[in-house]
Amino acid sequence: MKKVEAVIKPFKLDDVREALSEIGITGMTAIEVKGFGRQKGHTELYRGAEYVVDFLPKVKLEVVVKEEDLERCIEAITQAARTGKIGDGKIFVTSVERVVRIRTGETDADAI
Question: How many CA atoms lie within 13 A of 14 on its CB side?
Fold first, then answer.
């Protein structure tokens, strides 16, 4: 099993959710986060004063998938989240040793 963490632009969340649903991935966690990478924030004007916004709003998605679904999952997120502009985000993949569904006690692939 693999955990896919994707940091995307907030307005792309529904597109990504729909793309994952189309390939049969229905469970995910979405967290509102702030961060920056190469964008390094931007400058805004407030009451005549300029200030730098270092941390930009993003959404972090967490999805646990079976190994055989990994590439389709990555492709779906990439296609749905891409705008072609800086700040589209990143995808991180890590191994998951064990999953337990609390309600039923099911484990691993049966629990996701």
Answer: 1
Q: Which amino acid is at 104?
A: T
pLDDT tens for 13-22 read 999 999 999 9
Q: Are 9 and 103 in contact (CB under 8 A)?
A: no
Rounded distance, CA 101 to CA 16, Å?
A: 24
What does the block give as tokens for 67?
Answer: 């190994």
Please check whether residue 1 is in contact with residue 94, taking contact to mean a CB–CB distance below 8 angstroms.
no
The three-state secondary structure class of 104 is coil
Are 4 and 96 in contact by the 8 Å Cβ rule? The answer is: no
Percent of the chain whose predicted confidence (pLDDT) is above 90: 68
